[in-house]
Amino acid sequence: MTETAWSPCVVVVGSTMIDMIAYVDRVPEAGETAVGDRFTQGFGGKGANQAVMAARLGAVVRMVNCLGTDALGDITIDNFIREGIDVTYVTRTDRASSGVAPIWVEADGTNRIVCVPGANNEMTTRQARSAVVAAERVDVVVGQFEVPQAVTAAGFAIAKDRGALTVLNPAPAYPLDSALMKVTDWLVPNEVELLKVARTFGLRPGRVDDELAAAVTKATGLKLAVTLGPDGVAICEDGVTVTRVAAPKVHAVDTTGAGDAFVGAFAYGLAEGLGARAAAELGCACASVSVTGAGTQTSFPNQAEVSEIRRGLRLAQVRAADDTRYVRNRCFERSDIHRGDRRPD
Questions:
Q1: What local confidence, expressed as pLDDT, does residue 315 receive?
Q2: Which of 16, 137, 187, 273 suits a disulfide with 222, CB 3.0-4.6 Å?
Q3: CA 211 to CA 214: how far, in whole Å?
């Protein structure tokens, strides 16, 4: 990435996984063995994916995570460094393996994922707080449900104290902890996750529509961006008005990681100072590119594609008028990137 004096600064408190992807014509029934077409292994985890997408767009990104002291952890650290992501607050443990995610992808691109969090569950609230406190500047902090909610809440609380925005991707679908909700600004679920959140708050949704989006926004008090796959995104900030953002029409090859591409790009957009609609347009554009290729991070827009997306959306013209907060000191200098082999104070 090309860093400028106002590069958006994003901290991701989140998961890492090694994706183990099998491509099959159809998934097997219970007790059945199916023969797959091919197998690939790649870097994943919702937190890692979102961090990579934000970094490729140009954000200064700090990752907060825990890995096992195994070979999978070693290559994960190397991958972050290649992507230009700070790993000072990525710790290691011998109490669990690094996280893995076996994935089945069918011929139409539909996927099924089993996450084994492993070391992700060894993250601590102190680690999250320390990472956000230590950043010289932070614009957005991002979290998901693949790590303990208390850890995310701890990082978000410091972010709020520092005037940063917080973006929560409630995936996989679990009930939302009240302490985490209190320090969340934006909730970014998909349709399944939105239904789960709605039921948690006593709503009885029949389907995902604008009425439900508005009702969830009103019930939670959070701003909402619901990802709708090929139908784009529904945004609600006030519990009344719902804005639809269309996704570019593409031929989907593999939808794995598309939601993470959206979240990482949406968080970047907010950190850069874009309004919600423009940030969602950026997210949809990045997610749409990602589904046209196989794999997770490997299918995310590269630098040439990022440049094309930015030109197409004319991001320089829609950035919020107040750019003054981007001339402060950067989160950290490139020389501050370490290998993540120490435990933070």
A1: 60
A2: 187
A3: 5
CA dist., res. 281 & res. 262, Å (int): 9
For residues 218 and 239, is the Cβ–Cβ distance under 8 A? yes
> How confident is the model at residue 111, as a pLDDT?
86
* Domains in the chain, CATH or no CATH each: 9-28+38-320 (3.40.1190.20)
Question: Of the residues 185, 260, 322, 341, which is catalytic?
Answer: 260
Of 107, 112, 147, the residue nearest 131 (C-alpha): 147
Contact criterion met (CB below 8 Å) for 284 and 248: yes
Instruction: Please provide residue 60's backbone torsions phi and psi, each rounded to the nearest 5 degrees.
Output: -85, 115
User: What would the DSSP string read from start to end of 72-105?
Assistant: HHHHHHHHHHHTT-EEEEEEEESSSPPPEEEEEE
Give average pLDDT by consecutive 10-residue segment, the chain, 345 residues: 69 95 92 94 94 97 98 98 97 97 88 90 97 95 96 98 98 92 97 93 89 95 96 96 94 90 97 96 96 90 92 63 35 35 38
Peptide bond into 175 cis (omega under 30): no
Extract the tokens encoding 327: 């001339």
